[in-house]
Design goal:
Layout lengths: L12 H8 L17 E6 L6 H16 L5 E6 L6 H8 L9 E5 L1 H9 L12 E6 L3 E5 L1 H4 L13 E6 L7 H9 L3 E6 L3 H10 L6 E4 H13 L4 E5 L2 E2 L5 E2 L10 H7 L8 H15 L2 E5 L5 H16 L3 H9 L4 E2 L1 H11 L4 H15 L5
Parallel strand pairs: 1-2, 1-3, 6-7
Antiparallel strand pairs: 3-12, 4-12, 4-13, 5-8, 5-9, 10-11
Helix pairs in contact: 1-13, 2-11, 4-10, 6-10, 10-14
Length: about 375
């Protein structure tokens, strides 16, 4: 797979607003109709994680705004950290009538970026119609969290267990972050989705976890309210200049960059930092995307783009979306294409650093 240079792409509310007003032909809604049809919205994960919640939020929105008001049904095809579902979608590229869409996540993008041999899909064959940014929150049990005071130095003697989907899935971002902080974290690989990692935490089988923003708001906030979990930091968000700032959904929590800066031997410059940031962008700042197959006509692409723009621009969307998606941009049109490009590219140096780390720490090879 060719390696392409990463370009800056600041995903912000301003960008989302720009995406909403990007020009589309007024006749787009006068083209194809899906009346009487069922759209399968395929997610390569289990229904318990953040991707399922994201898809189930947008499914009724699309049913309402797509021409003909089709039934939109979310289907789950989990397996191999989402590569099984993505490989399946790659084989459906001739189904371009608008009745099949596919939702990806960073866990789908990471194996692609790293050249994982399980990957038989090609992002450049797919046509993006939506890109959603998200965040993530790291949390601990109360008895361990009481030793956290803004840096990770007092946690370095703790032995952590972490339920993980796999080192090359979206969990690459937390695992590399934990390493940079000097934490002793033993991942238990093979967990089915981030929802499985949360259940391990709830059962006391893990003592560190993170969830994407939507899953955190839906499933972890109640644990926090009951005094069973304590959030300590987020991954952060990107501003328009490509700098990591506090997550707008959780402005009272420090970002990973802040924690790294405060922690001894954790650096926010150099190869390790560049590698972490590259995967953070792919995994969070431009994490979830909706694709149509390659064979979908421009009319079908325009139809979906217009439908998504209508849904996002509708009165009350932001208020309805906030508890589910957090405060993150929903990019369409050219903004979605830019997000797709950013999320599916990597510099050679960052790629090699991560490949070497995976081999050294987890004996994971990608050849």
């Amino acid at each position: 797979m060719a390696v392409r240079q990463v370009v800056n792409f600041g995903l912000s509310t301003a960008l989302a607003t720009t995406a909403l007003v990007s020009a589309l032909p007024a006749t787009a809604q006068q083209g194809p109709s899906l009346e009487g049809k069922t759209v399968e919205y395929v997610i390569p994960f289990s229904e318990s994680g953040g991707s399922g919640r994201w898809a189930n939020f947008f499914a009724p929105q699309l049913s309402e705004t797509l021409p003909g008001n089709p039934t939109v049904v979310v289907r789950y095809r989990p397996g191999a950290g989402s590569t099984e579902g993505a490989n399946w979608f790659q084989g459906q590229q001739d189904q371009g009538d608008g009745t099949l869409i596919f939702g990806t996540s960073g866990s789908t993008q990471f194996p692609y970026l790293l050249g994982d041999p399980r990957v038989r899909y090609e992002y450049n064959d797919w046509q993006v119609v939506l890109a959603s940014g998200t965040g993530g929150v790291v949390y601990l049990p109360p008895d361990i969290a009481e030793r956290f005071d803004g840096d990770a130095d007092d946690l370095k003697d703790e032995f952590f267990l972490y339920g993980s989907q796999g080192a090359t899935t979206l969990d690459l971002v937390p695992l590399l972050a934990f390493k940079m902080l000097g934490l002793q974290v033993d991942p238990v690989f093979g967990v089915d989705g981030r929802g499985g990692g949360r259940l391990m935490f709830e059962r006391g089988e893990a003592n560190i976890d993170y969830q994407t923003s939507s899953a955190y708001l839906a499933n972890v906030q109640a644990l926090v309210d009951d005094g069973l979990a304590v959030p300590i930091f987020t991954w952060g968000a990107l501003n328009d200049d490509g700098e990591i700032v506090r997550d707008p959904t959780f402005p009272d929590l420090p970002s990973f960059k802040e924690i790294c800066e405060a922690t001894e031997d954790c650096e926010t410059e150099g190869t390790a930092w560049d590698a972490w940031k590259a995967f953070f962008v792919s995994g969070f700042a431009a994490q979830k995307m909706i694709y149509l197959p390659k064979s979908a006509s421009q009319e079908i692409v325009d139809m979906y783009t217009a439908a998504l723009q209508e849904a996002i621009a509708a009165e009350g969307f932001a208020e309805t979306a906030e508890p589910v998606l957090g405060i993150y941009p929903q990019a369409t049109g050219n903004a979605a294409k830019a997000a797709h490009e950013q999320a599916t590219t990597i510099t050679p140096e960052a790629k090699q650093y991560v490949i070497d780390w995976l081999k050294e720490d987890y004996n994971v090879t990608l050849e």
